[in-house]
Amino acid sequence: MSVHATLAASHPQTRNTSTDALDKTPDPDGYVVFDRVQKSYDGVSLVIKDLNLSVSKGEFLTMLGPSGSGKTTCLMMLAGFEIATHGEIRLSGRDINLVPPHKRGIGMVFQSYALFPHMTVAENLSFPLEVRGIAKSQREAQVKRALDMVKMGSFADRRPAQLSGGQQQRIALARALVFDPALVLMDEPLGALDKHLREHMQLEIKSLHERIGITVVYVTHDQGEALTMSDRIAVFNDGKIQQLAPPSEVYEKPQNSFVAQFIGANNSLRGVVEQIANGRANVRLSSGELIDATAVGVSEKGQPTSVSIRPERVEFKPDLIPQGANSIDAEVITTVYMGDILHCRLRAAGSDNFVVKMRNTLGQARLSPGDRIKIGWHPEDAHALDPA
């Protein structure tokens, strides 16, 4: 796919993002397809367990998960540095399991940048083109174009040691794009940058993706990074995808307790289902309160559950607690000033770590340790999941 293709021509297709879809045969028309893929290093234990995943052409898909969850192994199999123990990996309809890495037409960006220190920036970009036997005049044109893409055209004659970390990362990205790859893989590419530069580069990469429409598979353990950049997120744990959905859905509608706890801040309250109907569950919390929640990981009366509530969805002002909301008593333990928000830790519903986040706005009521308050939230903002 040419780096001058437009994103509109290859916009990701809408597909079923429910947990049931994760166990089904992947879309055969996907641009990148993992079909019942398994990976074992010792022939006994599986690092990747029956992975089914389709990536659309032009999509930015992020594989997100903790260390050891299997996300990097999947990326290495797609790149060709690891071979699947079972199943097929297809690129544009072609089985690439046994295709050598240099013949897959895939660009790679690593956390370490992997730039040759003895070469200039232009020479670093020219090298993969030389390996492919491209004529010098064409190499020069492609190097210039790739550097212009990442706004580094004036740095062609510098060496990597003369560049900042962010500039080196831009060059590493340009080198991955210089030969018009079919696909670009990024493995924790921003992990070595400081917070401010990392956030800036997230937006730069997202903007570049939108401009040129390249297909990207991105690996990270940074939840904020995944939410900021992705068309869809595949949340990994224990060698399996726990949820596959757009960022807003992964955050707003977690499908299990792992996703709820791993993505962003979360309050988790233990309880038992007393009644369930029409997608709604009445849950008796371990502290005795009865609340309503959206039934996600439960299906019958008597099931233990963990109810997930995002801190920013909890209200403490009486006039702002919506009608029909769950409402419980709470006591303020600590309040922490964090600039744009106020972070309050409460004793509520049997937990000493119930968190409420409040916007730091003019006239915002202040809470002090020892204050006794009522808190409330919409039943739609509470999700009755599998036990944590």
From TrEMBL:
Classification via Pfam families = ABC_tran (PF00005), TOBE_2 (PF08402)
**Residue stretches in coiled coil:** none
SUPFAM superfamilies reported in the protein's UniProt record = MOP-like, P-loop containing nucleoside triphosphate hydrolases
Membrane topology term reads:
Peripheral membrane protein
Q: Which GO terms describe its cellular component?
A: ATP-binding cassette (ABC) transporter complex
* Comp. bias (Polar residues): 11-20
The record's subcellular locations are:
Cell inner membrane
Q: Does the keyword Cell membrane apply?
A: yes
Main location per the UniProt record: membrane
Catalytic activity reads:
ATP + H2O + polyamine-[polyamine-binding protein]Side 1 = ADP + phosphate + polyamineSide 2 + [polyamine-binding protein]Side 1
List the Gene Ontology MF annotations in alphabetical order. Answer: ABC-type polyamine transporter activity; ATP binding; ATP hydrolysis activity
> Is the keyword Zinc assigned to this protein?
no
Against InterPro entries, the record matches this protein to:
AAA+_ATPase, ABC_SmlMolc_Importer, ABC_transporter-like_ATP-bd, ABC_transporter-like_CS, Mo/tungstate-bd_C_term_dom, P-loop_NTPase, PotA-like, Transp-assoc_OB_typ2
Q: What is its EC number?
A: 7.6.2.11
Residues covered by region (Disordered):
1-24
Question: Which controlled-vocabulary keywords does the entry list?
Answer: ATP-binding, Cell membrane, Membrane, Nucleotide-binding, Translocase, Transport
PANTHER family found in the cross-reference section: SPERMIDINE/PUTRESCINE IMPORT ATP-BINDING PROTEIN POTA, SPERMIDINE_PUTRESCINE IMPORT ATP-BINDING PROTEIN POTA
Function, as annotated: Part of the ABC transporter complex PotABCD involved in spermidine/putrescine import. Responsible for energy coupling to the transport system.
What family does the database annotate? Belongs to the ABC transporter superfamily. Spermidine/putrescine importer (TC 3.A.1.11.1) family.
This protein's assembly is summarised as: The complex is composed of two ATP-binding proteins (PotA), two transmembrane proteins (PotB and PotC) and a solute-binding protein (PotD).
Protein name in UniProt = Spermidine/putrescine import ATP-binding protein PotA
Question: What is the name of the gene encoding this protein?
Answer: potA
